[in-house]
């Protein structure tokens, strides 16, 4: 009989865990968002460095809630457009705010 009570209690806890999981909202916490933003920033920086058309250094990259902001100075209008285009290809980027300026 005691064993039956433990089994019932265990099943009840598992069921409550499932219900509680269903009740959670789809929003992510600030720590998870910060990690995601840092991952996106690193991905954009790496993509810019790897792109052969972008022979520039000093492009600043910041990300907040998936929105990437590019800043700094580049030598051509083509570089401005190319940097934004490269940033858009990175997984997780929702939009790009291109604040790059010509030297």
From TrEMBL:
Tell me which UniProt keywords the record has, alphabetically.
Signal
UniProt-listed InterPro entries: BON_dom (IPR007055), Lipoprotein_DolP (IPR051686), Transpt-assoc_nodulatn_dom_bac (IPR014004)
Domain named BON is located at 36-103
Where would one find the signal peptide in this protein?
1-25
Q: What is this protein called?
A: BON domain-containing protein
Organism of provenance:
Telluria aromaticivorans
